[in-house]
Design brief:
With 145 residues, this protein is mainly α. It has a domain of 81 residues. The chain has two helices and no strands. The longest helix is centred in the middle third of the chain and has 105 residues. The radius of gyration is 56 Å and the shape is rod-shaped.
């Protein structure tokens, strides 16, 4: 081998080694960045999983609360409807009793009604007042001698 060939060979070998070292540095840098990205992705995935679990728990709690409120509303509406029906029945009963009382009052004589319920039958006072005698002598009123 000649010296020129040996020098050229060593120069090419040196260039290739330098290129390989540069590629190795670039590859290691990419690996390091990929590792950091992987760690960040794993952290984000863990946080995401935790949030999904929390959201699921909240949704379950809200669903249970909704069901509880709905059943309470249904119970209240049942009670309200029952009370409303009861009220209508009582109103009907009161109206029929009032009609019955009115019929009985129409049949019964006023004197018997006065005995049963004196407040209802107040005698009308006569509008005529007795005329006072202006010239009559009043006893013990202090105006006479």
């Amino acid at each position: 081998m000649s010296v020129e060939f040996s020098n050229a060979y060593q120069e090419i070998l040196f260039d290739n080694v330098v290129s390989i070292i540069k590629q190795n540095f670039i590859f290691q840098t990419q690996l390091k960045l990929a590792e950091e990205t992987g760690k960040a992705k794993a952290e984000i995935q863990a946080k995401y999983d935790e949030l999904v679990k929390t959201k699921t728990n909240v949704n379950n709690t809200v669903y249970e609360e909704k069901n509880r409120l709905q059943s309470a509303l249904n119970d209240s509406m049942k009670k309200f409807t029952a009370l409303e029906i009861n009220l209508k029945a009582k109103d009907t009963e009161i109206a029929s009793l009032k009609d019955y009382i009115e019929k009985l009052e129409n049949i019964t004589t006023p004197s018997k009604l006065k005995k049963l319920n004196p407040e209802k039958f107040v005698e009308e006072k006569s509008l005529e007042q007795p005329t006072s005698d202006l010239f009559a002598i009043k006893v013990n009123d202090g105006s006479s001698f």
